[in-house]
Amino acid sequence: MADLSQIVKAYDVRGVVPDQWDESLAELFGAAFAQVTGASAIVVGHDMRPSSPGLSGAFARGAAARGVDVTEIGLCSTDQLYFASGQLGLPGAMFTASHNPAQYNGIKLCRAGAAPVGQDTGLAEIRTLVEGWADGGAPEAAGSAGAVTRRDVLADYATHLRSLVDLRKSRPLKVVVDAGNGMGGHTVPTVFDGLPIDLVPMYFELDGTFPNHEANPLDPANLVDLQAKVRETGADIGLAFDGDADRCFVVDERGEPVSPSAITALVAARELAKHPGGTVIHNLITSWSVPEVVKENGGKPVRTRVGHSFIKEEMARTGAIFGGEHSAHYYFRDFWNADTGMLAALHVLAALGGQDGPLSELVRQYDRYAASGEINSTVADQAGRAAAVKTAFAVDGVELDELDGLTVTSTDWWFNLRASNTEPLLRLNVEARDADTVARVRDEVLAIVRA
Description:
Blueprint: E1 13-16, H1 23-37, E2 41-46, H2 52-64, E3 69-75, H3 78-88, E4 92-95, E5 104-111, E6 115-116, H4 123-133, E7 148-150, H5 154-164, E8 173-178, H6 184-192, E9 197-202, H7 224-233, E10 237-241, E11 248-251, E12 257-258, H8 260-274, E13 279-283, H9 289-296, E14 300-304, H10 308-318, E15 322-324, E16 330-332, H11 341-353, H12 359-364, E17 370-371, E18 375-378, H13 382-393, E19 399-401, E20 406-409, E21 413-419, E22 425-432, H14 435-449
Parallel strand pairs: 2-3, 2-4, 3-7, 8-9, 8-10, 13-14, 13-15
Antiparallel strand pairs: 1-5, 4-5, 5-6, 10-11, 11-12, 15-16, 17-22, 18-22, 19-20, 20-21, 21-22
């Protein structure tokens, strides 16, 4: 029997295929998802990994055997699946392992309207059912099996996104897109069709073995090809999508990465122009510039923990118009509170194309501080090292909070130290008014963490 504790994570299912899970287990997950949601119909999609069609097909069979009608949308990005869930009003399952290596696969689940399914919202219950059925299979369902039908929603997805951002008045832009052999190669051509964009595609061939580089733009090594191509072609901007194309990273005309915090601030300003006085969610690792820009544009910033479930909960609770994370996840009320890197990219393109200056100049107003980026330290005693840092920084004039890990804030700098949920790591992020202060605070904290 598979060890489900190894593959059922906080927000999704993820593991090595076939070592940790396979199509027989996927079929049980489909049956359990049908039972837990109580839905009469669901929608299922998958990415380009070699194992994805088989796994998603097995999941569909499991759900259909429980009397649930299944709409299969086939190859899609994760945000395309969220679109289908929102537009059709159906719970959904997306088969992807996002940026993980080729041998991995997983399932991202949502209820109707793209509402997230995590440990506290159905995933623990699904795991319990699958464990109970692992030996004998799912029990027979009363009534007839559901129908499995195919539907292509790519054109509708693209039309919806373009209805939210008007690029008709944009100046022509040369845009390099690195899809990393992931689902951006599937969605970008349709979304960009008819826009004033000279598209320079990189690695658009769908290939779940990732022959060129990992589809994880959070790692700077995976941006090198994009940066070089932007400089070589004299492009206005470069975009990099992760494997399931729900995250988008941006480089400017010089090939320099633009911080996701600056993108969050830029998009927040644009959303507030459409929705004056709106609430914007940001996690506690985004830059000081994000709440500053939100307030300057008449909005209300709300700070939350890291992670899409927390962002989406706060979006729903506050009626927020937009949310952004340092990891380049961007959430929109106009997109069922779900994250979509493609919609964020369209906002950046519209902002760039609506004025004459280069991107580096445009984002300067949103990129106001020096930052360390995320620094990981392998430590055996996460709690002990974090406590030692807390003790060292518990001094007058310094504010400490433990909303998510330890955040320490002074007049000119702040840092956050968080333990990984899955690895023996402590993650450090530092921001300050200048680079020298970042270096000083970073070194002080790391000296304690790595002692």
